[in-house]
# Entry
Amino acid sequence: MGHAEPEVATSLQPFWMPFSPNKEFKAEPRLFARAQGMYFYTPDGRAVIDASSGLFCVAAGHCRKEIAEAVYRQLQTLDFTAPFLRGQSKAFELAARIAEYTPAGLNRVFFVNSGSEAVDTAMKVALMLHRVRGQPQRQLFVSRERAYHGVNMGGVALAGMVNNRRAYGVGLGGVYHMRHTALPQNRFARGQPEAGADLADDLLRFCQLYGGENIAACFVEPVAGSYGCLPPPKGYLQRLRQICDEHGILLVFDEVITGWGRLGAPFAAQAFGVTPDLMTMAKAMTNGAQPMGAVVAQQAVYDAITEAGPKQGVEFFHGYTYSAHPAACAAGLAMMDIFRDERLFDRAAALAPYLADGLHSLADAPGVADVRSIGLMGAIEMAPAGSPGARGHELQKKLYDIGLNLKNTGDSLIVAPPLVAERQHIDEIVAKLREALAS
Ligand SMILES: Cc1ncc(COP(=O)(O)O)c(C=O)c1O
# Structure
């Protein structure tokens, strides 16, 4: 395999960048040319430590040869086959490997290409299941303030962050939002906060107000990730599970960030001991090297839908041209080997307290309003200065300039290093954060 020379973009204008201030970026671009292990490298060769695993993707560190070679081999063997009516072995193999890690019973895997597609797919599975079970009136969904469930229209309806909805979400009805769990008394909590389990009773209130028998599913991120690491209060997810069971509502965990080891267990479901009916995943399942996501369903969900279908004919009218793309499956299988051989979930669990110590040591830095952490992720929330989010935005630029890559959401700086990080990398991340905050 040849080693391509990094390219520097000659004209930045035609690429309409997602979720980015295009005008500002194109006036003062912050580019990466290559990456290896824990580091990105700028076009002029400067190392920038990756404190956010790209975007919660690169659990095994950048540019893993095993994954690159698996994809290369696959593209020379079977580059593409339609996932409708035709199959290829790696899709079946990968589904079986995934089911080794998901909680018992969750063992039917529907492949998609992103977290957003996983969320919209899960909404359809929920609607379809209730229809075949003779409850087609279950059309309402419940989610939560501060939630991020991707950017497709279903996910936007579930979204709990105003900028992601205000231009698009008005016409999408039938979704009710529980209150978020970021209570003032939980500030600076390490891990799960004590207060707020009772906020799960918002779901019960919706059952009482709209009729629990009309609600299809309740979607939550077990730890709200994109907003800035909001771990669930102790007992909160258990209470949601209980209310869902009492009212026949599906509980969906959106594990696009929390899945694949971020919390020191394969999934948040195991980390918190609560089993959902459906779970979504993406990002780290291929180490970010190929776009891929999945919905994993309880076998009973799959059985009900497939058995209700015609004897010959499609049971679930849904799918993507690139569902289970062979190259993505090859990347996923290589990643499953890495998870197993390098015991990445155990590594994340072992390093988590050290990361928490480092992040919480920044509590007294200038302007810090809150520090939250759980597993191998955390957030430093800054008190706003000027317009909301302005300080967070300036800080992420400053951090790039001094050699640290992370994502901010508003005034929260989100830290989620690759699971292969060592203590020295955490030290470097914390030192650079301290330097930036001091400025
Ligand atoms: C919980 C959650 N759901 C869905 C998504 C959307 O994933 P994607 O950007 O791959 O569409 C994200 C992305 O960060 C996410 O964090």
